[in-house]
């Protein structure tokens, strides 16, 4: 199982939100690129990058900060946040991003996701963010009026092979991962799933690892790294244990 550290960007800075609320923001670094070396030194194999302003605006916003991160990253980087057109996907991939994460557009324009999967095989990941099982869109500010499992199944049908599943109610709260819901999503949709939201201890990672066979291939860790609740090197070692 892979551990993926998260860098969330807002206003050009590295921040963390609680439950996706923009009024509950903590700034951890003025320059997000500074986090790349820190994570690399601890063994990070992949980076998860989110353009929070982009999620609200509906198009990529923090391009300078994103380019700075990419220039320092020796490992692959996935990027999400407001990417809602083929042109935007092409632009992001041209910068050197390895995987593009599509969120709101998966609910509103599944045909665009299908086109993206055809045009950019193995480069498209769908982020499903849910609270109480219901999908949230537009920077988590609106309900998508759809169950997360239903959306995951729909995405499997249009060619998606990997989902990032975030439990909003747990995100940024260090309250533990929603392992059962994540495993159930993987089982029902028959997709690879990366868990996100609430991962706060090595115990969470061990729990998630038990469901590798069901499709959970990794987890994203954010606030727990910044608050030092989890040591990244220890988390990676734990995830690799047989």
Describe the structure.
With 242 residues, this protein is an alpha/beta fold. The chain has a single domain (2-240), classed as TIM Barrel (Alpha-Beta Barrel), CATH 3.20.20. Helix content is 38%, strand content 30%. The protein has eleven helices and twelve strands. Strands 1-4-5-6-7-10-11-12 form an eight-stranded parallel β-barrel, surrounded by eight helices. A hairpin with a 2-residue loop joins strand 1 (2-10) and strand 2. The longest helix has 11 residues, at 179-189. It is globular and about 40 Å long. The N and C termini lie close together (10 Å).
Spell out the CATH superfamily.
Aldolase class I
Low-confidence stretches: none
pLDDT averaged over residues: 89
Strand order of the largest sheet: 1-4-5-6-7-10-11-12
Sheet-strand content, in percent, reads 25-35%
What is the tally of beta strands? 12
Number of helices: 11
Helix content: 25-40%
User: Structural class of the helices, strands and pairings?
Assistant: alpha/beta
The main β sheet shows up as:
8 strands, parallel, barrel
CATH topology: TIM Barrel
Order of helices and strands: EEEHEHHEHEHHEEEHEHEHEHH
Radius of gyration: 16 Å
Give me the CATH architecture, please: Alpha-Beta Barrel
- The coarse silhouette is globular
Q: How widely separated are the two ends?
A: 10 Å
In total, the number of domains comes to: 1
């Amino acid at each position: 199982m892979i551990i993926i550290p998260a860098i969330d960007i807002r206003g050009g800075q590295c921040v963390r939100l609680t439950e996706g609320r923009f009024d509950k923001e903590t700034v951890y670094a003025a320059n997000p690129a500074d986090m790349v070396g820190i994570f690399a030194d601890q063994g990070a194999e992949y980076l998860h990058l989110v353009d929070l302003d982009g999620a609200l605006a509906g198009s990529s916003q923090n391009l300078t900060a994103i380019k700075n991160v990419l220039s320092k990253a020796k490992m692959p980087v996935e990027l999400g946040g407001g990417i809602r057109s083929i042109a935007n996907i092409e632009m992001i991939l041209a910068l050197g991003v390895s995987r593009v994460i599509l969120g709101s557009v998966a609910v509103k324009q599944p045909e665009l996701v299908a086109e993206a999967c055809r045009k950019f095989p193995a480069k498209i990941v769908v982020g499903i963010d849910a609270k109480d099982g219901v999908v949230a869109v537009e920077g988590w500010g609106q309900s998508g009026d759809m169950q997360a499992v239903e959306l995951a199944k729909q995405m499997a049908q249009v060619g998606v092979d990997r989902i990032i599943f975030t439990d909003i109610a747990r995100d940024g709260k260090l309250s533990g991962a929603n392992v059962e819901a994540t495993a159930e999503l993987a089982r029902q949709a028959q997709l690879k799933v990366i868990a996100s939201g609430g991962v706060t201890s090595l115990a969470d990672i061990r729990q998630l690892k038990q469901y590798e066979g069901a499709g959970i291939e990794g987890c994203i860790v954010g606030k727990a790294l910044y608050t030092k609740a989890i040591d990244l090197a220890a988390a990676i070692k734990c995830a690799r244990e047989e």
